[in-house]
Amino acid sequence: MNIKKAILFSLLVVAGTTAFAQSGNLRKAKAGLQKFQELQGAGSPELGKSSLESAKEAIDQAITHDKTKDDAETWTIYALVNANLATLEKSAEAAQAAEEGIKKATELDSDEKNKENITVAGQLLGQFNFGQGADAFNSQKYEEAYAAFDQALHYLPGDTTLLYYSGLSAIQKQDYPNAIKRYEELIPQKEFSQHKSVMIDLPKLYLSAKDTTNALEYAAKAAAEYPEDNDASVQNIELNLMTGNEDKIISDIENQIAKDANNKALHYYLGIAYSASDNNDKAIEAYKKAVEIDPNYVEANKNASATIINGVRDQLNALNEDKTLSNNDYSKRVEELKEQIKEALPYLEKVVELDSNDIDALRSLKGYYDFQQDEAKSAETQAKIEALQQ
């Protein structure tokens, strides 16, 4: 339900209400409420404040009068007047009075003649509590925010914005069970603007709650729901690798590739899975395949170069630690590594070509030239780095 429509709905319902044999105070309260709503609907709620206050004064008398104190409509108008006051003045006292009015009206409304107006009063209270929650959230009072959003959901069940911010508030106060509960309620709401974030964050919440089983389940669901999203797919891969499911996740990706061999993202994700499994040769092969499909695939170019460079770096570190090598053997092995690392250069150059402002790629490129002892290229690349830092 859209809470922004509550006030207009209230105007339509109350304006069409007809009552017979009503007392003067009830009649006066309804007239004042209707006048307020007309001005509110015209965008001037402050101009109608005096009418709402007059309605409040009249209805307070009506709820104690013998002729009207047990009338469902009396308590419905009482709830509507106070709910509007709560929203207009941000009054917790008026909100509490509205809650009492809703409860009493619901008990007395056996024929449900006032059901729609009781619902509207609840919508207004939901709107009030949403505002209270938003204020608390912005002030980083997450306990208060969660309580207010939770109360708003009582009157506006299923409202996606409320569910989302209720979940965020729970996360901020590390109440992971309630955060999970709210996010799970949002899963069917695929039209919600933050649906992808919810799906991707839910596995993280399960991990925070130390529930690895559900973290894996929902990571797989997020990856299936958003197959082209890098964060969703990488998370699914990483979680499976963390839990010792290397063979399963690699097998899953390879099975998908068998069905869709020209899907560059699948080859890229396979590279990530192999990299995480310390199988650099297979990872490089997968990244190369992704680049073959799309030469301008930045992430695949970047990972291909990084994996090649890191592999050479590891070998160089091992050489430096090997004290048994003669100087000639050491020099020979270094020259071999210089040849090996050349494989990374076209991928690095492509990354810089696609994004000349990628300072990390430029630093990697400079490191490459330094290792090759190409002073001119190194200086040229350093100048580009310094230009970006100015």
UniProtKB/TrEMBL annotation:
TPR repeats lie at residues 264-297. SUPFAM superfamilies: TPR-like. Keywords: Coiled coil, Repeat, Signal, TPR repeat. SMART domains: TPR. Residues 1-21 form the signal peptide. Pfam families: TPR_1 (PF00515), TPR_16 (PF13432). InterPro entries: TPR-like_helical_dom_sf, TPR_rpt, Ycf3. Transmembrane segments: none annotated. Residues 78-108 form a coiled coil. This is Tetratricopeptide repeat protein. The lineage of its organism: Bacteria, Pseudomonadati, Bacteroidota, Sphingobacteriia, Sphingobacteriales.
